Amino acid sequence: MSGFSLPVDDDEVTILGIISAIERSAALEFAEYLGHQFDALDQNEWFEDVRHYRKSLGQPFTYKHPADLRFIINEAVQEDSQIWHLIPNMNNAWSTAAHTLQGRLNSYHHGQLKPDLHSLLQMANLFVAITSSAGLAVADWGRALTTRVKDILSGAYEKCSPPSILAPAAPAEVTQKYDKTREELLKRPPLGSRWLGNKPGRKITLDRRTRDLYEDGISVADELGDIREGTVTTWLRYFPLGGEVWIAQDGAAMGYVKGVARMVGWFGPEPEGKSDSVRGFVVPKDFEFTGGDVKDLESGQFLSSSSEEPVGDLIEVLSQRLCPGDRFSITDYGDIFKPSTEGELKRVTRAHKGIWFEGQLPG
Hints:
By secondary structure, the chain is an alpha+beta fold.
């Protein structure tokens, strides 16, 4: 295990560094392993052969080197894969893990994988699942990561000083990219999340019974125009008892929920409401649109029987933009999107905690 680094706490930069390092190690080991397999078959130009084959079919091929884990995974799960038969014990479980890891790596490279211990634990398990069959050494690292992270989360691990194993520093470009992403996301948190920054200066009182809004005893609900009802509904969804709501200059609304300041909505249109960009960190789960419902692929639950509010309108929107069998992801902002290896992610639609699986979105 020398050279394999393990975390000692939940430091975000350390987690980013480990994810970057284990991805690179897995890619290099896989490329070397496949290189030996193809050498035995006297196919020294196997990567170029794959490139030419994919392009002959009119398929995109943007990979520059075989030591790119996204290339290896993408190629291995193809029905006409040229490398599938070279990896031992390939089966449906391997394909499922590979598809999931591919989605998590895409989220990571888009700066949308939340750098916490739970994400690292899932990534470690996925790396073990796809590298064990080929006997790659990185699988041992993944297993050690799984044990260490579980110990940290349970409180069983006691941090040494100095630590016996040092975590790698994240590459500068990764750290800079994350810092930029974090700065953008921290402008306003997802609805239901802890409020960031100072308490705003403008105070509005929400009357839960009349669904009216007052400032210094005077109703100000008419300032919202035709979004009044939707605004009150949103506030009450994240601020169930009503009461004092504090409004920032950009319209972000804060309320105290059980003594904790939380983002409960907006007073006025949401600034990013009409954008199709994807915001926030990806919820570490995968979903499938069945044509008439949404299935959580991990639990097997269906949205229609798991949400607090009716989901008919959401299903209708999804049916217009997705095909039955399509897999998709959702962020903690409620932005639904289809994973992609090409270009920027585009939002399909949005959901909120009332029409989503209980406990998966903030609030």
